[in-house]
Amino acid sequence: MPQRNKYISCSQVSLNASEEIFATAPRVDVWFLLEYRGHWSDKAFASSKVPEIVKKRLEEHLERIPNSRLQLIKRQNNREEMLKFYVVLSDELDPRLYEVDLDKYEDLLELDLSRILGNALYLRNEPIFLVCTNGEYDKCCGKYGVPVYLEAAKNENGFKVWRTTHLGGHRFAANLLHLPFGIYYGRVRDINVAKLIKDSINRNIKLEHYRGHSCYNKDVQAAEFFLRNLTGETEISAFQFKEANHKREGNLIFEFISKSDGKSHFIHVQKDRSALFNYTSCGDDEKSQIAQYRLVDYK
Prior knowledge:
The mean pLDDT is 92. It contains seven helices and 13 strands. Strands 4-3-1-2-6-5-7-8-9 form a nine-stranded mixed β-sheet. Strands 10-11-12-13 form a four-stranded antiparallel β-sheet. With 299 residues, it is α+β, with helices and mostly antiparallel strands. It folds into two domains: 30-208, Glutaredoxin, CATH 3.40.30.10; 216-298, no CATH class.
């Protein structure tokens, strides 16, 4: 059996295979972002010096809340005294971002999430962007993510950029996440990140880098991508997902509603679960099956 060339990065392997980037975003509805200024290993949260009792409390939140995810975040040369903690709801209709200042990590033990979500004092109107730079998890995230973060941080104006731990899909590095909307972008480079962020702040999705909307599962992400590509509509909130009709042999039909005129759009896609057989990480020794989607019909 041929051995993998370890000098070839997973991002290059993905490009060589012409793997589609859309419909690859993890499903996440609720985000917990915790500032941690120490070193990140490949298992960043588990190996961090966050007190164990605090880790346990956050893990309880993750277990209790469906489709939730924790990210460690940090900024270059941050000298602020307070630590930041964000709770983000990437809801399709009402995305919200809440910000809390912490004196110490143990403050999280006293926080009541329901009080935060119900208090406008914690609500932040300016968006934030996360760039995965955890090169110890996958070398592609360090190689491509760090220069993207540094370039994005130069242009902060009405938004804030954070380095973050693994976002999922490191073969699409550099990965950029727009919150509170939960819009995933991939294969971002330092030469185009400023324009990409500017367009995102103006509520326009750049389809050539669009991995998906985290409030949708990957099947719905595929249908939404095809709908936007066909209609040319890139405004973030242009469509509302209504329902799915799963047919046999990987055929799926999805209905979306236009927010502007109430029109229904029906997207018929086919999912091939074994379209590609490839490496998905720089550290992989074995290949994995990778699904791809094809448009069948649009009405």
